[in-house]
Write a structure and sequence with these properties.
With about 110 residues, the chain is mainly α. Helices cover about 60% and strands about 0% of the residues.
Length: about 110
Protein backbone atom coordinates (compact mmCIF):
# COMPACT_ATOMS: atom_id res chain seq x y z
CA UNK A 1 0.00 0.00 0.00
CA UNK A 2 1.21 3.51 -0.83
CA UNK A 3 0.23 6.65 1.02
CA UNK A 4 0.49 10.04 -0.65
CA UNK A 5 0.48 13.18 1.46
CA UNK A 6 -0.14 16.49 -0.29
CA UNK A 7 0.48 19.60 1.77
CA UNK A 8 -0.89 22.98 0.81
CA UNK A 9 -4.45 22.26 -0.19
CA UNK A 10 -7.47 23.48 1.74
CA UNK A 11 -9.30 20.86 3.77
CA UNK A 12 -11.99 19.11 1.77
CA UNK A 13 -10.77 20.41 -1.61
CA UNK A 14 -8.81 18.69 -4.34
CA UNK A 15 -5.09 19.49 -4.15
CA UNK A 16 -3.95 21.61 -7.09
CA UNK A 17 -0.20 21.31 -7.79
CA UNK A 18 1.40 24.70 -8.41
CA UNK A 19 4.86 23.72 -9.60
CA UNK A 20 6.70 25.15 -6.57
CA UNK A 21 9.54 22.67 -6.95
CA UNK A 22 10.17 23.98 -10.47
CA UNK A 23 10.00 27.58 -9.25
CA UNK A 24 12.60 27.10 -6.48
CA UNK A 25 15.70 27.82 -8.63
CA UNK A 26 14.07 30.93 -10.11
CA UNK A 27 13.18 32.15 -6.65
CA UNK A 28 16.88 32.80 -6.04
CA UNK A 29 16.81 35.41 -8.82
CA UNK A 30 13.52 36.81 -7.55
CA UNK A 31 14.82 37.18 -4.00
CA UNK A 32 17.92 38.95 -5.36
CA UNK A 33 15.61 41.53 -7.04
CA UNK A 34 16.73 40.32 -10.48
CA UNK A 35 13.21 40.51 -11.86
CA UNK A 36 14.06 40.63 -15.56
CA UNK A 37 16.23 37.51 -15.31
CA UNK A 38 13.65 35.79 -13.11
CA UNK A 39 10.87 36.60 -15.59
CA UNK A 40 12.90 35.27 -18.52
CA UNK A 41 13.66 32.02 -16.70
CA UNK A 42 10.09 31.68 -15.41
CA UNK A 43 8.75 32.10 -18.95
CA UNK A 44 10.89 29.16 -20.04
CA UNK A 45 9.45 27.10 -17.18
CA UNK A 46 5.89 28.05 -18.07
CA UNK A 47 6.42 27.14 -21.71
CA UNK A 48 7.82 23.74 -20.68
CA UNK A 49 5.20 23.17 -17.93
CA UNK A 50 2.00 25.00 -18.88
CA UNK A 51 -0.13 22.94 -16.52
CA UNK A 52 1.03 24.80 -13.39
CA UNK A 53 -0.93 27.90 -12.49
CA UNK A 54 1.56 28.71 -9.75
CA UNK A 55 4.33 29.15 -12.29
CA UNK A 56 2.11 31.51 -14.29
CA UNK A 57 1.31 33.49 -11.17
CA UNK A 58 4.97 33.79 -10.17
CA UNK A 59 5.89 34.74 -13.72
CA UNK A 60 3.29 37.52 -13.57
CA UNK A 61 4.80 38.72 -10.27
CA UNK A 62 8.26 38.92 -11.85
CA UNK A 63 6.93 40.70 -14.93
CA UNK A 64 5.04 43.19 -12.81
CA UNK A 65 8.16 44.09 -10.85
CA UNK A 66 10.22 44.19 -14.06
CA UNK A 67 7.83 46.73 -15.59
CA UNK A 68 6.40 44.30 -18.15
CA UNK A 69 2.84 45.39 -17.54
CA UNK A 70 1.04 43.77 -20.48
CA UNK A 71 2.86 40.46 -20.04
CA UNK A 72 2.15 40.45 -16.30
CA UNK A 73 -1.56 41.07 -16.79
CA UNK A 74 -1.75 38.41 -19.51
CA UNK A 75 -0.01 35.76 -17.44
CA UNK A 76 -2.01 36.61 -14.34
CA UNK A 77 -5.16 36.26 -16.45
CA UNK A 78 -4.00 32.78 -17.48
CA UNK A 79 -3.23 31.83 -13.87
CA UNK A 80 -6.68 33.00 -12.75
CA UNK A 81 -8.16 30.96 -15.60
CA UNK A 82 -6.57 27.88 -14.02
CA UNK A 83 -7.76 28.67 -10.50
CA UNK A 84 -9.66 31.58 -9.02
CA UNK A 85 -7.42 31.41 -5.94
CA UNK A 86 -4.82 33.42 -7.88
CA UNK A 87 -7.29 36.30 -8.09
CA UNK A 88 -7.48 36.26 -4.29
CA UNK A 89 -3.70 36.07 -3.95
CA UNK A 90 -3.19 39.01 -6.31
CA UNK A 91 -5.54 41.25 -4.35
CA UNK A 92 -3.08 41.53 -1.48
CA UNK A 93 0.23 40.73 -3.18
CA UNK A 94 2.59 43.73 -3.16
CA UNK A 95 4.35 42.30 -6.24
CA UNK A 96 1.41 43.67 -8.18
CA UNK A 97 1.55 47.18 -6.72
CA UNK A 98 3.05 48.50 -10.00
CA UNK A 99 -0.15 47.34 -11.76
CA UNK A 100 -2.77 48.64 -9.33
CA UNK A 101 -3.53 51.75 -11.43
CA UNK A 102 -4.02 49.70 -14.62
CA UNK A 103 -7.69 49.29 -15.61
CA UNK A 104 -7.02 45.80 -17.00
CA UNK A 105 -5.57 44.73 -13.66
CA UNK A 106 -8.54 46.15 -11.76
CA UNK A 107 -10.89 44.26 -14.10
CA UNK A 108 -9.01 41.02 -13.46
CA UNK A 109 -9.32 41.43 -9.71
CA UNK A 110 -13.01 42.28 -9.98
CA UNK A 111 -13.70 39.12 -11.96
Amino acid sequence: MTTVVAVGGPSGKVYEPEGWELWAPVNVLFQADEYDAAADRALELVEANPQYGGLLYNLACCESLAGRTDDAIGHLREAIGRSDRYRLYAQGDSDFDPLRAEPAFAELLAG
